Amino acid sequence: MEQTLTLLVLDLVGCFVFALSGGLMAVRKELDIFGVIVLACVTGLGGGFLRDMAIGATPVAALSDWRYLVVPMTAGLLTFFFHPALGRLEPLVNVFDALGLGLFVIAGAVKALDFGLSPLAAAVMGLATGVGGGALRDVLAGRVPIILRRSVFYAIPAFAGASVAAFGLYAALPASLAMAAAFIVCSGWRLLAMWRHWEAPLPRGSASV
Amino acid sequence: MEQTLTLLVLDLVGCFVFALSGGLMAVRKELDIFGVIVLACVTGLGGGFLRDMAIGATPVAALSDWRYLVVPMTAGLLTFFFHPALGRLEPLVNVFDALGLGLFVIAGAVKALDFGLSPLAAAVMGLATGVGGGALRDVLAGRVPIILRRSVFYAIPAFAGASVAAFGLYAALPASLAMAAAFIVCSGWRLLAMWRHWEAPLPRGSASV
Amino acid sequence: MEQTLTLLVLDLVGCFVFALSGGLMAVRKELDIFGVIVLACVTGLGGGFLRDMAIGATPVAALSDWRYLVVPMTAGLLTFFFHPALGRLEPLVNVFDALGLGLFVIAGAVKALDFGLSPLAAAVMGLATGVGGGALRDVLAGRVPIILRRSVFYAIPAFAGASVAAFGLYAALPASLAMAAAFIVCSGWRLLAMWRHWEAPLPRGSASV
Q: What is the membrane topology here (chains A, B, C) (predicted)?
């Protein structure tokens, strides 16, 4: 029970941080107050929505627990009123974003396994949970999703972490060990990639295709 | 039973009007005849699709009742052949759009409550039902969704109306009273906002972020 | 049983070919290796995802059978490493794409009928299965979906083929006859339209609206 509570708190923290990133994007697009709140909610909740609709966990979690709605709404309101301060805190926001990514991919993989999916499918659902909200945010804002463009920062660590969680739990590793390893792989990689400016291979001669 | 029939007719009217707006957007993007029909259907049915997939009401309503498919297809065909006349009728179309928004948010909130969601979640689903189709229309047409940009006209009245319906019914108000109040709040606000050119607050200094 | 296996193989071939088209688009957008794989998977699996979420066939098929994940991942990897050769083979890829479209609309219509949908709704789901992945690919790549713009090539043959399959099976035609006719209508039309450069009617004076 205590573990469930811990997971819930971590999930809500991830949701809050992701919602901040959506709110900041909305401010940059000069959306008005409700547009900021809506984009914050879509970013914070979109990944879990996609996962729950795909695995059939309906009504989706965000609609079954009021905290999943209130947290990103609050993040959107905070972004609207305090975005200059948040902009200055962007390095900190990025760190939280990396931590949020780790939490989301684990939560996604665990839930997918609970619904009877294979470890590979659970890893894909962990990836979708971690990057789905940001992809929706970018599509709504009219940009090619950053998860497609900067995969070393998002998609690769998300899939790696989700795979560690999914295959680790499937192989009956102790849950806390599998989750801790997954979190370190995903969020650690994401932080290292930011810090060291890693880049993923591009297709040969892609610019000339 | 009679009330159900009334709701169905109102829902189909809303679907028809929303489909017209999708068809007009398609004509402006110079899509061909089938593109016009498809965008009309996506706009008329998208909100309900999202709601039904999120709450687990599958197969979604639009697939369970042929009238939900025939109505927006007809609207698309009419737009294709008579769009110059429809363009001249745009003020009238906007009024119908405002009425359709009211009908959709109520239908969405009521259905979500029926599926056991909390009033807050039902209000969010009412919002999604009302603005989801238009958001899909805009994303497919390559625009930032108008619900993010002009929230005083769409998102705020939609959420206000959906909240009145959801919390009113949850509080066991007479259904007809709660729905009438919700309709007046949503569609009345939308019409007033159009008529008086209301605007929602923008973030401070957002242009310079 | 053998028929089911045949259908599965054909479905996977369609998935592979669609994933190639997504991978090629990703290479053109200069996405990195993981971006190519993700866009390939979204294109190959997106239509079936949409269909299964809409009809309530959850967890969606792509998550219940590992081959549906491995096939488009492989297609994405192949595109990443061999895209210059694939680019030269584009006419051949287009032919496979036409065949894949026929397979997908039939698979979509058949599954929708199995879930108790009406023939019209099943035809719409066949259409969604056939064109959904490409629509997601285009939206993620920041383009108006080609299914809206070039409907003679995609949406019309897809809907025609899906209708033949759905109404044929509903009318208790022999399954192999209904499916063969649907395949010829859809893929044959698509190939003819490519070969003869067909165009669908545009709205009158749409450019000046």
A: Multi-pass membrane protein
C-alpha to C-alpha distance for B79 and B26, rounded to whole angstroms: 9
Residues A181, A164: contact at Cβ < 8 Å?
A: yes
Whether C82 has its CB under 8 Å from any CB of chain A: the answer is no
The pair of structure tokens assigned to B84 is 């110059």
**pLDDT, tens digit, for every residue of C37-51?**
999 999 999 999 999
Of B117, B135, B206, the CB nearest to A59: B117
**Chain A residues with beta carbon closer than 8 angstroms to that of C69:** 120-121, 124
Measured between CB atoms, does C104 come within 8 Å of chain A? no
| B202-B123-B140-C194 Cα dihedral, nearest 10 degrees | 180
In the 8-state DSSP scheme, what is residue A206?
G
Question: Of C87 and A160, which is predicted with more confidence?
Answer: A160
Distance of alpha carbon B208 from alpha carbon B206, whole angstroms? 5
Assess contact for A56 and A108: CB atoms under 8 A: no
Q: Check CB contact of C60 with chain A, cutoff 8 Å.
A: yes
- Helix ranges restricted to H, B59-118: 61-64, 67-88, 90-114
Closest-CA residue of B relative to A138 is B144
Taking the Cβ of residue B193 and every Cβ of chain A, the question of whether any pair is shorter than 8 Å is answered with: no
| B49 has a chain C CB within 8 A of its CB | yes
The pLDDT of residue A207: 46
Amino acid letter, C79:
T
Chain B neighbors of A140, CB-CB under 8 A: 135, 139, 144-145, 148
Q: Each residue of B172-189: pLDDT tens digit?
A: 999 999 999 999 999 999
Q: Please tell me the distance from the alpha carbon of residue C28 to that of residue C10, in angstroms, as a whole number.
A: 28
- Res A106 pLDDT > 90: yes
Of B23, B53, B58, B51, give the one whose Cα is nearest residue B140: B23
Nearest to C7 by CA among C133, C164, C165: C165
d(C-alpha C31, C-alpha B71), whole Å: 41
CA distance A130 to A141: 19
Which chain B residues contact residue A63 at CB under 8 A? 54-55, 112, 117-118, 121, 124-125
Question: What is residue A163's predicted lDDT score, i.e. its pLDDT?
Answer: 97
Contacts 24+ apart (CB under 8 A), B81-87: B83/B23, B83/B24, B83/B27, B83/C203, B83/C204, B83/C206, B83/C209, B84/C204, B84/C205, B84/C209, B86/B20, B86/B23, B86/B24, B87/B24, B87/C209
Say whether residue C208 is in contact with chain B using an 8 A CB cutoff: no
Q: Give me C151's structure tokens.
A: 């409907």
Inter-chain residue contact C32 with A125, CB threshold 8 Å:
no
Q: What is the ipTM of this complex?
A: 0.85
| Separation CA A24–CA B209 (nearest Å) | 9
Q: CB-CB: which of B36, B53, B142 is closest to C54? A: B53
Q: A198 phi and psi, to 5 degrees?
A: -65, 155
- Report the distance separating Cα B152 and Cα A33, nearest Å: 9
Phi-psi region of A198 (alpha: psi -120 to 50; beta: other; left: phi over 0): beta
- List chain A residues with CB under 8 Å of C27: 203, 206, 209
Residue C115 phi/psi, 5° resolution?
-90, 10
